[in-house]
Amino acid sequence: MKHFFYGLLIAFLTQGCAAQSKAQLIDSSQETVIKEHFDYYLYYPKGYDTLAEKRFPLLLFLHGGGESGDSLVAVKRNGPPKLIARGKEFPFLILAPQNPHKKKWWNTVAVKQLLDTIVANNHVDPDRIYLTGLSRGGGAAWEMAVQYPTTFAAMAVVCGMTPLPYAAWIDKKMPIWVFHGEEDESIPISESETMVERLLSMGYNVRFTRYPGVAHDSWIPAYNTEELYEWFMAQARK
Prior knowledge:
Elements: H1 2-20, E1 40-43, E2 56-62, H2 79-85, E3 93-97, H3 108-120, E4 124-134, H4 136-147, E5 154-158, E6 176-181, H5 190-201, E7 206-211, H6 219-223, H7 226-233
Parallel strand pairs: 2-3, 2-4, 4-5, 5-6, 6-7
Antiparallel strand pairs: 1-3
């Protein structure tokens, strides 16, 4: 009896190995969960606490690669957070998260979840959510405009890489302002040129500001452009 059992076991194992040696195509599924930890700055404009019934616009700012990591203060190096640190006041909330990964792209799905949470828990006008980013954050801004075309009322991108093949996925009603330095060697101005040309050819509302003699740090003149913030405030989803 024992020999018979061993014989069946060997036969089973042999058949299993034989089956595994053949090519197979199987159906399966798995639910995955991705978690992200964001430190962030959240700026509240003057009058926010006293105007309980008012809904304020919100600007989502995505920094560049140099500000990534685990030191939140680095986010104040450039863009609106830097201007706030120097005393500038804005008429809208500003959400400025930090990408915790020094050498990874922004997790834009997680950024959207953070944005949704901030909007839900503050006096934010959902029709006046604005988006901006520089360098790696500029690329992430383009990506978010593609992935979430009904979220933003306006977008300003500074020297960011562009998802040219998916340009048509961006909401055609959303105004866009692009800034880029002509001497940028990190992300060449051709990235913005080709994207702007594609969008204009499809009838999009796009402004393009070029900076002659300026390299990758075109975010300095771009975010010091007072008209940019007036332009944001004039936009709303209809």
